[in-house]
Amino acid sequence: MGYQILAVSADSPEYLAQSKQKHQMGYALLSDHSMHGAMALGIAWQVNDEILKTYKGYGIDLEKTSGETHHILPVPAAFVVGTDGKIRFAYVNPDHKVRVPVQVLLEAARIGVQ
What we know:
By secondary structure, the protein is of the alpha+beta class.
């Protein structure tokens, strides 16, 4: 459909380089470890101490992977942006376990090119 796919992660550039090598991704993976982009889009949330402790129990160390101490993460989100810079479709879900269904995103992309 002519789109360029960009993924944005809360991980530092160093951790993203490891992920790119390990998973051989076919798209650009960018770092927003400062969370400035997520905050500008209104999709950032503050991880509380209880959740931070739970994450550490799962071996997830936000400070290590992001290189930051802010404990902020983005909620799941997907955007279709036109060449004019306008957002044609936005999906944002405060439940970190729910991602945009692939078919919904594909349909949004099809409509966005018209």
